[in-house]
Amino acid sequence: MYFSRTTLLYMLVFTLLLHKVVGDDPLYHFCTSSENYAANGLFDTNLKHLMDFLFISVPPFGFGFWSVGIGETRVNGLALCRGDVSSTDCKSCVVEANSKIRQRCPYKKGAIIWYDHCLLKYSDEEFFGKIDNKNKFYMRNVRSVYDRVSFNQKTKKLLTRLANEANYSPLLYATGELEVDDSRTLYGLVQCTRDLPFFDCKKCLDTAISELPRCCDGSQGGRVIGGSCNFRYELYPFVNV
Predict the structure, then answer these.
(1) How far apart are CA 27 and CA 166, in angstroms?
(2) Do residues 171 and 83 make contact, with C-beta atoms less than 8 angstroms apart?
(3) Are 125 and 146 in contact (CB under 8 A)?
(4) Cα–Cα distances in Å, from 214 out to 2, 208, 217?
(5) What is the pTM of this model?
(6) Using CB atoms within 10 A of its CB, is residue 151 exposed (0-12), middle (13-18) or buried (19+)?
């Protein structure tokens, strides 16, 4: 059976296990280009130089982007680590992402891969400062809440508040919590890649939050994860403090 790329991007839903074992497996990936580059050619060399730069520049700040080469051999890339991740874990994630993306998208001129702790993306097309609405997927908890309507409203309220906070943060990142009732607290996180202007970060997050009904209607936890921004919410703490 054939599914179009658009269908996969916007309708793909993953199930989160309640007790997820932490490992090195990526959340998901896309090979974003159908064009191949030659092994040991200029593009391959430039891609290696790009990754070397990201290994060095990203961990201290949690984000980095760069371009290497000119013309058809030019490669653009970025890496983003989650705002609460240590420099050591950030570097480990970027190194693992580079290794895995080469395995899953061998010799492709464009690819993107996500982990819990980081995002890695490269392409022969320049994408810096542009909202990526093409590469997106959903994750959700298999358990649902009984008070679906009220819970959905509070989830949107928390994420909207965090989107506003991230819009004014130099890291384009925010976390927070909201009491759902006497016995439950909702925890949330939003983040954008830092090549985006502030107003585009807010725009990206607003679009992601608008997809809550399609992604996570009544689910105890969920995520919309894209190439430029993402959010996550859960009924348990998941951010390092």
Answers:
(1) 23
(2) yes
(3) no
(4) 22, 10, 7
(5) 0.88
(6) buried
Asked if residue 77 lies in contact with residue 94, where contact means CB atoms within 8 angstroms, the answer is no
* pLDDT tens-digit map of 42-67: 999 999 999 999 999 999 999 999 99
Q: Tell me which DSSP letter residue 22 carries.
A: P
- Which tokens sit at 73? 């051999």
Pick the closest to residue 80 from 48, 110, 57, 109 (CA basis). 57
Those residues with Cβ within 8 angstroms of residue 170's Cβ, 6 or more apart along the chain or in another chain:
none
CB atoms within 10 A of CB 108: 20
Q: What domains are there in the chain, each with its CATH number? A: 21-123 (3.30.430.20), 136-234 (3.30.430.20)
